[in-house]
């Protein structure tokens, strides 16, 4: 079936053959699907906060996609580094959590037990603590107070 407006699109994956600008360093893709990224997202957000903010400021400054490629590459490298660190010390806990998310429609609330194991492992290994942006500071984080039922 052909989609309206895409008469010449045959349905296969398309990759832009245009090489990136020569003045920018090459960076690998993160190479992860949604569930592992969601599992690690709060830690990536904390670890890569400065790079993310630089990228967003750049995007506000100039809407030309090429203008912010360097900042985008820094965000990607930081995310790759965070995922590699998580895998290096907490591979089993990480896998248990993202597999749970993958099987339960990526609903964090239904995966609190494996999440707790991952959070404890990352705190023990790296001293990383999961903090939700914008959460009240005078109350326990939701992932710490919700009954563990998964």
UniProtKB/TrEMBL annotation:
Its main location: mitochondrion. The keyword S-adenosyl-L-methionine does not apply. GO terms for biological process: mitochondrial electron transport, NADH to ubiquinone. It is found in: Mitochondrion inner membrane. Keywords: Disulfide bond, Electron transport, Membrane, Mitochondrion, Mitochondrion inner membrane, Repeat, Respiratory chain, Transport. GO terms for cellular component: mitochondrial inner membrane. Belongs to the complex I NDUFA8 subunit family. PANTHER family: NADH DEHYDROGENASE [UBIQUINONE] 1 ALPHA SUBCOMPLEX SUBUNIT 8 (PTHR13344:SF0), NADH-UBIQUINONE OXIDOREDUCTASE (PTHR13344). Accessory subunit of the mitochondrial membrane respiratory chain NADH dehydrogenase (Complex I), that is believed not to be involved in catalysis. Complex I functions in the transfer of electrons from NADH to the respiratory chain. The immediate electron acceptor for the enzyme is believed to be ubiquinone. This is NADH-ubiquinone oxidoreductase.
């Amino acid at each position: 079936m052909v989609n309206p407006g895409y008469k010449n699109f045959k349905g296969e994956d398309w990759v832009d053959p245009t090489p990136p600008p020569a003045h920018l360093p090459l960076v690998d893709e993160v190479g992860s699907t949604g569930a592992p990224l969601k599992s690690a997202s709060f830690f990536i957000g904390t670890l890569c906060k400065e790079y993310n903010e630089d990228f967003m400021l750049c995007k506000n400054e100039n809407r030309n996609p090429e203008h912010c490629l360097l900042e985008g590459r820094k965000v990607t490298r930081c995310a790759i580094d965070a995922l590699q660190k998580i895998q290096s010390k907490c591979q089993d806990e990480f896998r248990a959590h993202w597999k749970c998310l993958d099987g339960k429609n990526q609903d964090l609330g239904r995966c609190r037990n494996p999440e707790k194991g991952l959070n404890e492992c990352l705190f023990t290994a790296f001293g990383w603590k999961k903090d939700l942006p914008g959460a009240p500071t005078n109350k326990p984080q939701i992932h710490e107070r919700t009954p563990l039922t998964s």
